[in-house]
Specification:
The complex is a heterodimer of chains A (427) and B (316).
Chain A lengths: L3 E10 L4 E10 L2 E6 L9 E4 L4 E4 L1 E6 L12 H10 L2 E6 L10 H14 L3 E4 L15 H6 L5 E2 L8 H14 L2 E4 L4 H4 L4 E2 L2 H6 L3 E2 L2 H17 L2 E4 L8 H9 L4 E6 H5 L21 H12 L5 E3 L7 H4 L16 H10 L5 H15 L15 E11 L18 E11 L2 E5 L3
Parallel strand pairs in A: 1-4, 1-5, 6-7, 7-8, 9-10, 10-13, 11-12, 13-14, 14-15
Antiparallel strand pairs in A: 1-2, 2-3, 5-16, 16-17, 17-18
Helix pairs in contact in A: 4-7, 7-8
Chain B lengths: L15 H19 L12 E6 L5 H12 L3 E6 L11 H9 L5 E6 L4 H6 L5 E7 L5 H15 L6 E5 L6 H12 L3 E5 L15 E3 L2 H5 L4 E4 L15 H8 L3 H4 L7 E3 L12 H5 L6 H31 L1
Parallel strand pairs in B: 1-2, 1-3, 3-4, 5-6, 5-8, 6-7, 8-9
Helix pairs in contact in B: 1-5, 1-11, 2-11, 5-6, 5-11
Classes of the chains: A alpha/beta (427), B alpha/beta (316).
């Protein structure tokens, strides 16, 4: 493998929280050296970054590849290509496939498919309960041995607290990470939007933002009881934040995420029933969005995810309340995040702390950093390059992006996984 | 006065001048309906299809009669017994109908926004006959016409809308219309049936009927759906009638000449006392039905005019 030397780069280091000019040398799949000032003369492919940003590759927790079961919507190959083009070097995939990933055999299948066809790293997650039905726990031990990165029933909430308590207790003994969807299903079932003036005028079934807080408070009480390792997949409302802060201050092993859509869009974007803006949980009020941005800035929320959820045209071209939820986002995660940077709300080191360093650490990975000796999973991007998003240019099979036709800034120029380029922008 | 709209999907996109133009037009049809020559020719040669994905007797009959009186060929499709049951999507149904070249499509659908979605896919004028909990524009227009004829104006009136606001598309369209025409609108009902955020709509919200009806020129009652009476939203039918049913005592808090309205069908003894509903000095409920035909004739004629103009422009 040839060495690559990036010169004249803007190094985004989420660990040191620095954003400074420098050079970086990649050799044998790892970051061999880095520094400021004049780059060393070495035998390597030299890439003059021209002042563009070089950051650790994104570790995206919660990608749906739709494989097995829904390959007309997406596949591991197409999701991998989208990830590479989006600067995502590790996809942590969801088990909400058909059938769900709830046995070691199924997990082994997706893991192998990932190795065969995905240009980026793929770490599959497993279901916490069989068939994601919330009744019996999966073979957590075997699944861990087979390589399960974490355990989650995705948007299915385990309502039986006895089942959940036992699953948490068992998982804790094995050190497994649980990823939960904090939501009170009694309130949120059937809801398509967040309750309020807008939802009521549109006449859509709505859920109070309080449903998220109730779900989180319940989960955290059980974490306090069982001492399980817990990650909330998406915190999207200000009302839920105090519980999170309290749990962290109390020394519980708790982290939280938020989707890029909840950081960059709000409930009004739904407009006249635009189903590409239907996500789960639904988009929130602007005050909540701003509170989430602030929570990422101060570290209360640890991780930003794409929550990449491909849906075909047929699932979306329906009346809003019966249309499918979710949006594709692997390729738009970085340019959408740049909105927050250009708005002066989050710095690049802060963004990459939430998109690379924190998720990698939470999963025990060596990546997510620009440290010497770390694996060379990197993204080179132009934070300022403007473009108009045409959804049909996306590499995902499904084109359900809420950013269609919008002006965005931020283009990935090159993505490296273990020192090897997996994407290079030609034009 | 002009009405430059392709479809009638809701009150929300209408300007007060659109509303006035439409009502002025409807006034003439109301007079025509009372005469012996009820026929017009405004829709001669045009095809009107009524697509009702939800049960309806009154609205469908009203649209049918309105179309026939103006000379349209009217076809009723009951979508509950059609290919929708066989799994055809709304879009496919729309495209199938579109291939038959209708000029006016009247649609009722149980999902909010479904009529907007359908309107994007067809070449004809679409009239929303009620979509989910979203809008029912012709109902609001016929209510407005009834009020204007009874009160002599459609502004600076004190109007109480009472009952199940949360599930009512009639209420939403009326709130929008009456607000645009600069009336004082008050919502009255149990808090479980008031939609969240309603207080931000530029209306006043009351939980007590007597307070809500105080000084009202117009009392608009809403139908309470049977399936909402079983303890989910209110404890019981009788408790609802006791606290929110319109009877003579509660009505006495409104102005002495206040009119009583109801979009129908009524649940006598649930949201309204039978004697109030039948009191010809107070109730304009039958007039609402009459105005329904007139308003729908006017709306279809204006949309058909726009459609013709658009088609002629395309041929030039």
């Amino acid at each position: 493998m040839t060495a690559i030397l990036f010169t004249n780069a803007r190094l985004i280091d989420p660990e040191a929280q620095t954003d400074a000019p420098g050079w970086l040398l990649v050799r044998d799949g790892r970051i061999a050296d880095r520094g400021t000032g004049a780059a060393p003369v070495v035998e390597a492919r030299v890439i003059d970054a021209g002042g563009k940003c070089l950051a650790p590759g994104i570790v995206d927790i919660g990608v749906k590849t739709c494989e097995p079961g829904e390959r007309h919507k997406e596949s591991i190959r197409t999701a991998g290509a989208a990830a590479a083009a989006g600067g995502v070097t590790t996809m942590v995939t969801r088990p909400d496939t058909t059938p769900p990933i709830d046995t070691p055999e199924a997990l082994e299948f997706v893991r192998r498919r990932g190795e065969q066809v995905s240009p980026v790293r793929m770490l599959p997650m497993a279901a916490l309960t069989k068939a994601r039905a919330g009744r019996e726990m999966t073979e957590i031990g075997f699944l861990l041995d087979a390589g399960a990165a974490a355990f989650t029933d995705c948007d299915h909430v385990v309502t039986d607290t006895k089942v959940l308590t036992r699953a948490m207790t068992y998982a804790r003994s094995l050190g497994a990470l649980l990823i939960m969807h904090p939501q009170e299903p009694g309130l949120s079932s059937g809801a398509a939007v967040t309750s309020g003036k807008f939802a009521s005028l549109r006449g859509l079934p709505a859920v109070s933002p309080m449903a998220e807080r109730i779900g989180l408070e319940r989960d955290l009480a059980l974490v306090e009881m069982t001492r399980a390792r817990y990650h909330a997949d998406q915190i999207t409302t200000a009302a839920a934040l105090p519980a999170l802060t309290r749990a962290k201050a109390g020394g519980l092993d708790v982290t939280a995420g938020v989707s890029i859509h909840h950081l960059t869009l709000n409930e009004f974007d739904v407009g006249d029933y635009r189903t590409f803006f239907k996500v789960k949980p639904p988009l929130r009020a602007e005050d909540d969005r701003l509170a989430m941005v602030e929570a990422v800035a101060d570290g209360t929320i640890d991780i930003i995810s794409s929550m990449h959820t491909p849906q075909d045209e047929e699932s979306k071209r329906l009346p809003f309340e019966v249309a499918a939820s979710g949006a594709v986002a692997l390729e738009t995660l970085l340019p959408a995040a740049m909105r927050l940077y250009h708005a002066g709300q989050l710095s690049l080191p802060q963004l990459f702390r939430a998109m690379a360093l924190n998720p990698a650490r939470r999963l025990g990975l060596e990546t997510g950093t620009l440290a010497v000796e770390a694996p060379a999973d990197l993204v080179l991007f132009d934070a300022h390059a403007p473009f108009l998003l045409d959804r049909f240019t996306l590499r995902s099979k499904s084109k359900n992006t809420p950013f269609d036709g919008m002006r965005m800034e931020g283009k990935v120029l090159m993505t490296l996984v273990a020192g090897a380029p997996v994407f290079e922008r030609t034009a | 006065m002009t009405f430059a709209k392709r479809h009638l999907l809701g009150i929300e996109p209408l300007h007060p001048t659109d509303i006035t133009a439409l009502l002025d037009h409807a006034d003439r049809y109301a007079e025509m309906g009372r005469g012996s020559a009820k026929h017009g020719t405004a829709l001669t040669g045009l095809t009107q299809i009524n697509m009702f994905f939800e049960n309806s007797t009154r609205t469908q009959a009203s649209f049918e009669l309105a179309g026939m009186r103006l000379g349209a060929d009217v076809m009723n499709m009951s979508m509950q017994t059609s290919s929708v049951k066989k799994g055809e999507t709304l879009i496919d149904t729309a495209l199938t109908l579109n291939a038959m070249h209708p000029d006016l499509l009247v649609v009722r659908h149980p999902h909010s926004g479904a009529v907007n979605l359908l309107a994007e896919k067809v070449n004809c004028a679409v009239l929303n006959a009620g979509d989910g909990r979203h809008e029912h524009p012709t109902q609001a227009l016929l209510d407005a016409l009834t009020i204007r004829r009874a009160k002599g104006r459609l502004h600076r009136l004190n109007i109480a809308i009472c009952g199940d606001i949360a599930h009512s598309r009639v209420a939403r369209s009326n709130i929008l219309l009456l607000g645009k025409m600069e009336n004082r609108v008050k919502l009255v009902g149990p808090p479980t049936l008031i939609p969240s955020g309603a207080a931000d709509w530029g209306v006043e919200v009351y939980e007590d009927m007597r307070e809500g009806l105080a000084g009202a020129d117009v009392v608009m009652m809403l139908r309470l759906q049977k399936e909402r009476m079983d303890g989910g939203f209110i404890p019981s039918e009788r408790e609802y009638y006791h606290r929110y049913g319109l009877d003579a005592e509660k009505l006495s808090h409104a102005k002495p000449d206040a009119i009583v309205m109801h979009p129908g069908p009524m649940n006598r003894g649930v949201e309204i006392d039978g004697t109030i509903a039948d009191d010809i000095n107070r109730s304009v409920i039958q007039e609402q039905v009459e105005m329904g035909v007139a308003v729908r004739m006017a709306a279809m004629e204006l949309l058909a005019q726009n459609l013709k103009a658009e088609r002629e422009a395309a041929h030039v």
